[in-house]
Structures are given as C-alpha cells and as structure tokens.
Design goal:
By secondary structure, the protein is α/β, with parallel strands linked by helices. The chain has helices at residues 2-14, 73-85, 100-117, 133-143, 183-195, 214-230, 238-257, 261-274, 281-293, 295-328, 334-348, 353-376, 382-395, 400-412, 416-428, 450-460, and strands at 32-37, 44-48, 59-66, 88-93, 120-130, 150-154, 171-176, 200-204.
C-alpha cells in the first residue's frame, strides 16, 4: 500500500510541475536520441519523435523503462512502427539495482515530465516494457487506469489477479516468443482477460529471441490506433480501417500457408472482436468454418493444448524436486535429472514445434530456477555451489560460465579430478578462449599442474606453462 500511495501522490504532483521551457531543447525527428537529461533527476532517457512531429497537435505516447545496459533497445525496436502510426516513444533508463519502489517513483515522475514537456494526447498513453522491466510497466496502468489507455508487455508481464485487476477500458497487448518460459502465462492471461471482457491480444513471434520484428510492432500499433478510433480518442477513418483490415486478412492467409492453423484461428477471432462492422462477415465466416473443420487444425490444436498441459504438470513437479535437491545437495539424484533432461532433448528434436518449444521452455525455466536459488543463497557453502553449477551444465552444455565455476569451486575444494573432467567437457562443447582458462577464479594451483596444461595443449596445440608443477 505504501508504494501505491507514493505513486498516487507523485502522479498528481507531476502533472502540475513547472518544467523546462520547450525552446531549451532541440531534438531531431525520425531518429532515437539517447542519453537525454531529465530535469531534477540523475536519470537519462531515450526519445523518438515521428518524422512529421509538430507541437501543433497531440500525439499518442509509448512510455517505458529499461534497466538493461542496452537501454535504447525498445525505442529502436518500435521506431519504424511509431513513425508510421505517429507515436512518440519515451524510455526511461534506470539502474538494475534500484528497488521496485524507487523505480516506480522514477517512472511516474518521468511520465509527468514527458506529458508536460511534449505535446502528448493524455488519453492515448501506453506503457511498454520488455523482460523484467515489463513487470512494472504493465503494473502501473492497472493502478492508475485513468492515466493510461493500456500496456504493451514484451516477454514478461505482471500477474493480473484479484489484487491487480484491469478495468474494461484498458487494452492489453502481449508479445512473446514461443520459446520463452513466460509463453504459457501469456496464453492463459489472454484467455483470462478475454473472459472478463477486457480487450486483450497476444502476438507470437519466432524471430529474434529477445525482441519482436517490425511486422509485429506494426501490428501492435495498428491495433492500438484502431481501438483509439472506436473509443473516440482519434478521428474515425474508414479508409485507414479498410487498409488495416486488409493487412490482418493477409496475415491470416500467410499463417494458413505456413500451416499455423491455431494462430490463424486466433487472428480471425481478434479481427471479429476488433473491427466491429467493418470486416467481411460472410467470407470470414467461411474461412473460419474451413479452419475449424479441417483435420490439420484439430491435430495442431490437440498438440498445442497437450503440450501446454504437459508443461504445466512438469514445471510444478520439477520445481518441487529441484528445490529439494539443491537444499540437500543431492548428487545421487543427478542421474535421474540427466534422464529427465534427455527426455526433454528428445522433444526438442521433434518436428512438432509445440512440443519442441515446450521442452525448450522447461529447460529455461529450470535454469532460471537454479540461478534464482543461487542469487537468494549467496552465502551457500562451496559444495552447494558446485552442485548447482553442475546442474546448470546438465541443462545447458553451452553455459561456459557454469563450467568454469565448477572448475574453480572444485579446485578450491581440492577436487582436481572433477575440475579436470569439467575442463575437458568445457573444451569439448566448443569453448575456445585460451587466455581465460588461466584466469578462472580459484585455480591458482590447478592451472600450474601438468594435467591441466596437457588438456589445454591437446585442444589448442599450445600451453601457457612449459614447466609443470610436479
């Protein structure tokens, strides 16, 4: 409650603050400008103004936060779509070490700053966030529904429940990669919000793992603009609507050509919900009927739902087991885990993309669970650190940092045999940074041994030390 009270107070104050005069800042249009200073704050922000931006009209706003080193990524990802559909983008750059409460305070201050400084249409303000930052960016509009028209959540989102329940004038747009561990949550969240008659949509993309392609960001902003027209927040343009509808229908046809029957059917449902009386009812009904009656759709839907069910079951069980094994440092159970991971790897080799993606998500879920455990137990003993990092190498043989941690911790513990074994695994899995092998923490004595250098020489043909410690 304290956080909510602080946010409310700041939100009220920020809209009446005296800010810098507009003529003190000259910005280029059509490009993302980084590292801009915010008045009365040490934070910087990134800004994108459409090429046709003027102060003579009000503009919709995408406002977000980024705490990652690549702090301008979101603005760059959405800039082409924002330029086409006429949106301002403002992204606050924050520190990952800041608490949720302090970041929320900074975010609300930033909103007031942008709204007062630029020509923003206040009933078309949408929050945007990716990954961990999306938890906060998707929470704030629910706390203050009168100040936000909706949110765009990329690859993560706040858990909407009875505590944080959006109102019906809120528009939720989720964007998720099918191999992200959050995928199943987005699917269920979309169903939950739709059941509550809250406009919601989820776009699934399968290109770059972290950020969606331009075709998806265009789809998102097109939908937000369409919603704004039907809610009277911007002028209704029937020609524009017909063009947007044509693009959505083309998207359905492309999905059908790619045999993405489940997503094509979902897209048809969204068209019927979003376009009111503008869509061709008879022809769309025929397309939908053909999809629903097709054998291919029924088989894919069965695969899709069964994979989600299996994922839910396995993640609950696995989470329970891994917590117990990490706490007990249960080496005896590693063989069982090895067999379970082999089963998941079998699914990953399947042609069925839904089962393949499900297995990838579960492995990422387990890896994140172990890493979270390590973060919460920084003072754990060396044996526990060895075990947890060994487990990560089972899940991800290409996680070279965990291999090196096992080598270092085992060396500190005097277990040179295991350390050398993981050095061999590290190299066998493709590690090729020669110099770093002599910089692994805890290996001061190990790296001088004959055995250590022989393994390195066998792989690289050279070694740092020609005289070995006997």
């Amino acid at each position: 409650m304290r956080l909510i009270k602080i946010l409310f107070t700041l939100l009220m104050l920020s809209n009446t603050k005296g800010l810098l005069a507009q003529d003190t800042l000259t910005l280029k249009k059509g490009i993302v400008v980084n590292s801009l200073s915010q008045a009365s704050s040490d934070n910087t922000y990134s800004l994108y103004l459409p090429e046709n931006f003027t102060v003579d009209k009000k503009w919709p706003l995408l406002i977000g936060i980024e705490s990652t080193p690549n702090s301008a990524a979101l603005a760059h990802v959405f800039k082409e779509a924002a330029n086409e559909y006429g949106y301002v983008i403002a992204i606050l750059n924050t520190d990952q070490k800041d608490s949720l409460e302090s970041t929320a305070v900074e975010f609300v201050n930033f909103l007031g700053y942008i709204v007062a400084y630029f020509s923003i249409q206040q009933d078309r303000v949408y929050t945007i966030g990716e990954g961990l930052d999306a938890e906060l960016s998707s929470l704030v509009p629910v706390l203050y529904p009168d100040n936000f028209a909706g949110t765009i959540a990329v690859n993560n989102s706040i858990v909407y429940d009875e505590t944080y329940k959006p109102k019906k004038n809120f528009y939720y747009y989720g964007i998720v990669h099918p191999q992200r561990k959050e995928f199943s949550y987005f699917i269920r969240l979309n169903e939950l919000l739709t059941q509550r008659a809250i406009p919601a949509e989820v776009a699934v993309y399968d290109s770059d793992f972290d950020f969606p392609p331009t075709q998806v960001t265009r789809q998102v902003l097109s939908r937000l603009t369409l919603q704004a027209m039907f809610k009277g927040r911007t002028k209704l343009d029937s020609i524009w609507i017909k063009k947007a509808l044509k693009e959505d229908l083309n998207r359905v046809n492309k999905m059908l050509r790619n045999k993405e029957y489940v997503y094509a059917q979902d897209q048809i449902v969204e068209i019927k919900q979003n376009y009111l009386d503008f869509y061709p009812k008879d022809s769309l009904a025929t397309i939908e009927k053909n999809i629903l009656n097709s054998k291919d759709y029924k088989e894919e839907l069965s695969s899709f739902t069964q994979a989600l069910y299996e994922e839910e079951l396995l993640t609950v069980n696995y989470l329970n087991y891994i917590k117990k094994d990490l706490t007990a440092i249960n080496y005896q159970n590693l063989d069982w885990w090895r067999a379970e991971i082999a089963k998941l790897d079998t699914f990953i080799q399947e042609e069925d993309k839904h089962w393949r993606n499900m297995a990838i998500r579960i492995k990422l879920f387990l890896k994140d669970a172990v890493e979270a455990y390590n973060e919460e137990n920084l003072e754990q003993n060396i044996e526990a650190k060895i075990f947890s990092n060994m487990f990560i190498t089972l899940l991800d043989p290409k996680d070279f940092d965990s291999h090196k941690k096992v080598i270092g911790f085992c060396a500190m513990d005097g277990d040179y045999e295991t350390a050398l074994g993981f050095l061999q695994k590290l190299l066998a899995n493709g590690y090729d940074d020669f110099e770093s092998l002599y910089e692994i923490e805890g290996t001061t004595a190990l790296k001088m041994t004959k055995e250590y250098n022989q393994i390195i020489k066998k792989h690289f043909g050279i070694t740092r030390y020609s005289l070995y410690k006997q």
